[in-house]
Amino acid sequence: MIEDQAIQAVNPFHSYFEHLDYQTAEAPQFIDITADVVDVVARSGAENGIAVVFSRHTTAAIKINESEPELIKDMTRFLSEIAPMDREYHHNNFDVRTVNMTEDECPNAHAHCQHLLLSASESLPILGRRIHLGRWQRIFLVELDGPKARQVTVQIMGG
What we know:
The chain is built from four helices and eight strands. The chain has a single domain (13-86, 108-158), classed as Sandwich (Jelly Rolls). It has helices at 2-10, 34-44, 69-82, 109-117, and strands at residues 14-23, 29-32, 49-55, 60-66, 121-127, 130-131, 137-143, 149-158. The relative contact order is 0.36.
């Protein structure tokens, strides 16, 4: 019991989280969620620590990149060239596929394949109550299979 109290006294870190809900309009879509994450960090009260931004979806990613319209066009084209929507995919063959099916299932293997190159989360340092991003860095929710309702979890660990 005394050991637990000593650890608590030495470890001032706490945990805080929020879910952020988005309705996407199309795929692919790069949604800048930086301001929303900044607001969560402010509400958390963390002086220093880590913010983890996590997409709860296998066809919507979280990425840090530059928010420049021509670059977003390039990134969109890159994703479609890597895993085009019109390619033949086993996942899209509903005559054979029997796993993880829903009534409103749509052919979306391209979105899952594109997600392989991206990621479900990003970790960001919090320094002096602020997310420590580079000059051009922004946090994006990348929709690969929309339009859909999406949820992003922001977990703050810090003190």
